[in-house]
Amino acid sequence: MQIEIDGGRLVSEIEELSGYSDAEPPAVTRVVFGPSDKMARGWLASLCHEAKLAVREDAVGNLFARWAGMRPELPAVGTGSHIDAIPYAGKFDGTVGVLGGLEAIRALQRSGFRPQRSIELLLFTSEEPTRFGIGCFGSRLLSGTLSDSADEGFKDAEGRTLRELRTAAGYSGSLAEVRLSDSYYDAFVELHIEQGQLLEKEAIPIGVVTQIAAPAGMRISVEGEGGHAGAVLMDDRKDAFCAAAEIVLAVERSARSTGARDTCGTVGKCQIYPGAVNSIPSRVLLEVDVRDTDEARRNDVLREIENACEQIAGKRGVAVKVELVNADPPAQCSGKIISTVIESADELGLSYKKMVSRAYHDSLFMARIAPTGMIFIPCRKGISHRPDEYASPESIGKGTHLLASALAKLASA
Ligand code: GLV
Ligand code: MN
Ligand code: MN
User: Distance between CA 413 and CA 407 in Å, rounded?
Assistant: First the structure.
């Protein structure tokens, strides 16, 4: 079987998809259920129809495009990723796995290959936490990690519930039905840019992921006392933002205190009320991201941040409330998928490196319901979640070729 990837078409589709965006190019912003997300989904569905795939969408907008195997009753082989993009992101995060997955299927179709198991492309809804403050929304629901009460429990910054937003986007039905059975997929493989610089530095074209680090999120609100920026004397203040600034530094200190390079702590969102230059901040909301490959060590950091919040609240006379949004365990990739990907890489003459994913992906949750693995390709300087994110056509082509080869093996078993 000769698999030929149409790299030119794939790269131009990645480019075209980046045009569905709320930000000026080269930046991409595509928020789940927003107008650009909706248009991008319609465009992707038409590409899937063109490839003669059977398309269905579930109640939260996860999109499945299936190439029926000769034994359609068998658990399928899945591949895919996400197309939502955080504010001012690049064009490769997630999209390489979706459009690369589609091209892998088309390449297999062109080669004359006939799969035993069905091969299915999966577009996950809202991998990014932009709208609902929690990542991997679609795959959490697919794996039964979120319950159907999520419909009212999750709101965006404007106070619109998940139910309202998904209904307005055309997705109805019970969230409970989104859950896939443990026998739905026999294997799941996600292609993604590395988002780090190990592959590029070592000039290795392929990363074979063995483990995905454990993410956690916290929402911290600080309630102080507002007032006039000139009239309230410094000794009389309970400035919520000054307390929040100490909390931000405590997050950094706590993450660094483990001494492990796998521990990361970030405060990426901060809202200040009332938000006027001549008004003392009365209330601040921080959103905190903590990750580690070691779950227990990650949990120690979360506790340390909580303790720091208590101390800072006491010292500054403000009220600090800490809400744990999520604290997920890490995922181990399946030995079967790792060895299949390695076998394909050897056949294609592609060198590889086994590696940990420090970023999270929908595969973190797919690993709960299916043997799961990931293929990484290098991206320039490891840059991601920025408009200058870049993966070369050559890297994308190699990753897609490897994906196609691995899918063919998995769908034949
Ligand atoms: C995914 O986008 C992540 O933040 O790891
Ligand atoms: Mn991302
Ligand atoms: Mn991603």
Answer: 10
Q: Exposed e or buried b for every residue in 217-251, given b needs 16+ CB within 10 A?
A: bbebbbbbbbbeeeebeeeebbbbbbbbbbbbebb
Determine the Cα–Cα distance for residues 290 and 47; give it in Å rounded to an integer.
37
d(CA 167, CA 122): 21
| Whole-number percent of the chain with pLDDT over 90 | 99
- Nearest ligand 1 atom, CA 195: 5
**Block residue for tokens 């997955």:** 101
Asked if residue 216 has its Cβ within 6 Å of ligand 1, the reply is no
Model confidence, pTM: 0.96
Strands 372-377 and 185-193: parallel
**Does 371 sit behind a cis peptide bond, omega within 30 degrees of 0 on the bond before it?**
no
Longest Cα pair distance anywhere in the chain, in angstroms?
A: 79
307-354: per-residue pLDDT in tens? 999 999 999 999 999 999 999 999 999 999 999 999 999 999 999 999
